[in-house]
Amino acid sequence: MNIRGKVKVLVLRTAGTNCDKETAFAFEQAGARSDLVHINRLIRKERTLLDYHILALPGGFSYGDDIASGKILANEIRFKLLGPLMRFIKAGRIVIGICNGFQVLVKAGILPNLSGGFNHIEATLSLNDSAKFEDRWVYLKPESSDPRSRNNNCIWTRDLSPVIYLPVAHAEGKFIPKDSATLKKLEQQGQITFRYSGKDGEKPSYPFNPNGSVGDIAGMCDPTGRVFGLMPHPERHIRHTQHPFWTRIPGRSEGDGMKIFRNGVEFIRKV
Amino acid sequence: MIYRIEVRDKKNIYDAVGEGVKKDIAELGIRGVKHVRFIQVYFLEGCLKRTAIPHIARMLLADPVTQEFSCFKPFSHEGGTCHIVEVGYNPGVMDPVEASALKALGDLNIPGVDSVRTARKFLIRGDVEESTVRFMSEKLLYNKVIQHIVIGRSHSAKIIPPYRFKLRTVNLSGAGDEELMRLSKTGQLFLNLDEMKAIKGYFSKAGKDPTDCELESIAQTWSEHCKHKTFRGDVDYKGKTIRNLLKSTVMKVTKDLDKKWCVSVFKDNAGVITFDDRFDVCFKVETHNHPSAIEPYGGAGTGIGGVIRDPLGTGLGAKPIMNTDVFCFGPPDTPLNKVPKGTLHPKRVMKGVVGGVRDYGNRMGIPTTNGAVLFDERYIGNPLVYCGNVGILPKNMTSKRVDPGDLVVVVGGRTGRDGIHGATFSSGELTEESETVSGQAVQIGNAITEKKVTDTILQARDAGLYKAITDCGAGGLSSAVGEMGEETGAEIYLDRVPLKYKGLSYTEIWISEAQERMVLAVHPRKVKRLLEVFEAENVEATVIGRFTGTGRLNLFYEKHPVADLSMDFLHNGGPDVKRKAVWKKPLYKEPHKPCPKDLTPYLARILSSWNVASKEWVIRQYDHEVQGGSVLKPLQGIDCDGPGDACVIRPVLDSERGIAVSNGINFLYGLIDPYWMAASCIDEAIRQIIAVGGDIERIALLDNFCWGNTDKPDVLGALVRSSLACYDIAKAYKVPFISGKDSLNNEFRTAKGTIQIPATLLISAIGIIGDVTRTVSMDFKDAGNFIYAAGATGAAMGGSHYWKILGYTGNAVPTVDPLRARRYMKKLTRAIGRGMVRSCHDCSEGGIGVALSEMAFAGGIGADISLQRVVQKGRIRRDDILLFSESNSRFIIEVPKGKRQAFERIMEGEPIALIGETKRSSRVRVEGMDGSIVVDAALSELKAAWQKPFGNW
């Protein structure tokens, strides 16, 4: 890839997108340049995906999450943008889907994409066991930090601390794989990136697993490690003062989510 | 042709909706229900191939992993008794899913679908009678105002008949007084006789009878909701006439103080103050009480949706950045037989209201970071729903301009029959029949439409494509166009207004309060570019007329003139209102009980009272962090569950500047003396901002009066007294009001008599924070720090929660000494700014006892204090009064030992006392005047008491 000047991020917008600006801001803090682009402009070919290095699908309620969260945008991408998106991914570019963006990637069959064919919907994100929207902070264990599990090759989650702290804010975040074979393959292929955990890394019960996700799964990548999605919001923890009890913590260290954006930008720079 | 598709979770998938309903049924006290299964139903109407239906189900409606579907006919269900309840929307009520579903069908490349409707179907198994199923459905599953049910069989969507034009006039010329009042009542105009006579006079001079449309326009413009005729009228009080109560009290504070940073006050949709040298911020709080009473979910959702459009319609449009919500409900444990006819149970109202605010606010991507929930029996029939929004706009964007020749453009949602008569309805009282008569006044919102409108309006604003903007709120187009064209006049072609469905009359189009619409004034040269901005993101925008220079309002439908009114009469033709006000201090019983030796159980009871208890169940359902600017969240401390004071956000992500928002509300004081209620509310709102490190020199206030029927002199007297306090106290604090709102006639009429709400004033405060990294939260941080109490504690226990749990109201209400308090608040701000304070919490309900407990269990840090050194106002001999007094202007402050001297030097000469120390002990211990221990409780015990009431919702 030829990177002249800044790494360019396309933050995808549509009706009901609402974490676009802070996601763009996080990438800018990581040294990239971000553009907020409405999906109509891609469909009408006023903008080209391949002009960008990173595609970010931010949080929100695309099309109101009517019918099911992320479903309508997922279909729109499947039926109107799948070609350009497959070319984008095959060209070595990278993708992140956060919260609603993750729901979209899963429901469009772009994640987990176990066989790499983009044509199977292998999992879903469904209504929380609590049957309602909840905003709360959760502890996440990056899979690669657990020596017992197979290291995954996700480029977005490299070198994270053993447990990180991010907020979730969703009603439909319960990860359910199609069947146990799917779950097994996900694990075998090292595609699971995050699991919810207790404070000290122990197995979580509610509310530490905030939605009842199978296997406590909070985030995953595709087999290439370049397409990544998660329910928690890393863009909501890039600065010290976003931490829910920053007033108890001395110093001004950056938030746990910042590293994820920096990993993305640095990966592109090094290609 | 209508096609039916049913979708349900597969057998092995946890049915969270069904399980939730089952739990709610059990809570209703109904036994015997073994299992509830939820099924989502879709009706597709149109001309399409039969084979397309399963394709649509597979590709769009059902999740391939977790769900299954049945096309054309319901799922067959096997085994056991099974009641089927299917809940659908009434004709004319917007189905929020429709627009998205049609868009998705377009993406699937399936043409021919004209409409999509949804229904929710519940299979209820167990040993229950059909009458019980009907009862529980009414209590839990549907609201007849907007929905209907079919039990036992399936139904299909209904169709609305088309509309044929027919001009309707109302015979006023021949009407006597009685007939005028009858017309006012049956037409839901809510106009009084003087007003009806003024209208009759105007039309007889014009030599015609009014059309229904003209009459509706006048009724809406003159409604209490839009015109605030009580507040802006004259009042006889104590032998004197107060001219324009609002101008001579609340607004006068601002005028007298003349703060440079007040940019635009009391004239636009929200009050505007300076944020920094690049931006201004604006703030508005509204009420949506009556709609929320009869349809809590829709009423509250459109309440928040409506107030978001206020900042969006302020100046040339502000970006909404924060929501605040304050509710008053009946007690959630009210027995079913105590709920009056025509009223929903308070718990259902609360769940619906919270759900409405949650779904709308979250979908808008606006953090809801501040609020309060209060309870009292008198709110059962008439709950209060206050919704507020803060917006940010670039500097020099506060002025609007409308010139003759400018086009009138309506943007956003389509117009439907929803929300008709909202402005007049909200100006009347609620009755047992309200839910049937005024059902049309209730709307269901569609947040995504409003989000799209917001996104595109801000683009159009930045491109300079329009000159004026306002929202379509109460009164719909009638109000929006009437206001914008007041100076110029306007002509509107009602048949050009995009409709949700056919069948609306011209008058319905004109006064519909369908949500998510904004009106713009656009120079003809810019209209093409403007429409392109909206089109690019699938937002509907339509030119519906133009502003003229005639000073008249002219409405047309298919070329027929349907209204021709002078703008001057419309806006200024109403007769002046003059009312009488009296106020007499009520007398309540006082408790005569000696001070208990052990205050621990009393502390626990106050912590467990509905008003004080943790509202985490509510707060968690709101996204309080979207937009990425949260600094002090509503839930604080080591386990993220302590009750914060003001919230702080950073609206501009690359700046350390922030805003703090808080509220003050205490109707219990108003029962005793509305003057000191208002004073206390102002104090509470201000001190919460001071507690996080805000500066009293940069705080602005909003007033929101929710009152009973002000035709009654004593009710108006309470309003006058509160207004006078607003002037006195805010003036002395040097804190201006920038906007406000009043909602009168909050009463509920039953066969047995009228239930009046307690006079309830909400004061909302917004403070500008210079550096958010210097703010402090309320949770104790470390063991071994000093605990100070600032402010004097007095013996006025009237309206306190301590008296309340003992069953008394009392007569002596806390007062405010603003001159003194202002002085030490400024010093406290300085101490916090210099990093001397680790935590700070204001004392409100439950006094020092509750504040201390909250700080301790939020921080997971124990505390030992003594009541001996607490600064007293007068001489207090009782430990219970010292511990639970709710005297105003007080703070509990945690200061590291090493900062003691510096802190005391700053606070020198002020009423502060070192009352104790934080401890590693995990207990709260309070020593009484004689050295004996009056409270000794584990943190876990106190926290459990505080969390219990909403713990299992």
Labels describing this entry:
heterodimer; A: 271 residues; alpha/beta; Rossmann fold; two-stranded antiparallel ribbon; 7 helices; 11 strands; 24% helix; B: alpha+beta; Mth169, Chain: A; Phosphoribosyl-aminoimidazole Synthetase, Chain A, domain 2; seven-stranded mixed beta sheet; 33% helix
Largest interface comes to: A-B, 63 and 68 residues
- CATH topology category name of chain A: Rossmann fold
Annotated CATH architecture of chain A: 3-Layer(aba) Sandwich
Using the 3D structure, state the CATH architecture of the domain at 608-694 and 766-947 in chain B.
Alpha-Beta Complex
Per DSSP E runs of 2 or more residues, the count of β-strands of chain A stands at: 11
How much strand content do the residues of chain B show? 25-35%
Q: Roughly what percent helix of chain B? A: 25-40%
Low-confidence residue ranges of chain A: none
Molecular shape of chain B: globular
Helix/sheet category of chain A: alpha/beta
The number of distinct helices of chain B, counting runs of at least 4 residues, comes to 32
CATH class of chain A reads Alpha Beta
Radius of gyration of chain A: 17 Å
User: Going by CATH, what is the homologous superfamily of the domain at 608-694 and 766-947 in chain B?
Assistant: PurM-like C-terminal domain
- Count of separate structural domains of chain A: 1
How would you characterize the overall build of this protein?
The complex is a heterodimer of chains A (271) and B (953). Chain A is built from 7 helices and 11 strands. With 271 residues, chain A is of the alpha/beta class. Chain A has one domain (8-270): 3-Layer(aba) Sandwich (Rossmann fold). Chain A has a 9-stranded mixed β-sheet. A two-stranded antiparallel sheet of chain A has the order 5-8. In chain A, strand 1, helix 1 (20-29) and strand 2 form a beta-alpha-beta unit. Chain B has 953 residues and is α+β, with helices and mostly antiparallel strands. Among the domains of chain B are: 2-151, Phosphoribosylformylglycinamidine synthase subunit PurS (Mth169, Chain: A, 2-Layer Sandwich); 608-694 and 766-947, Phosphoribosyl-aminoimidazole Synthetase, Chain A, domain 2. Chain B has 32 helices and 40 strands. In chain B, strand 27 (647-649) and strand 28 form a beta hairpin. In chain B, helix 14 packs parallel to helix 17 (447-462) and helix 25 packs parallel to helix 26. The two termini of chain B are 43 Å apart. Chains A and B meet through helix 1, helix 3, strand 5 and strand 6 of A and helix 1, helix 2, helix 3, helix 14 and helix 17 of B.
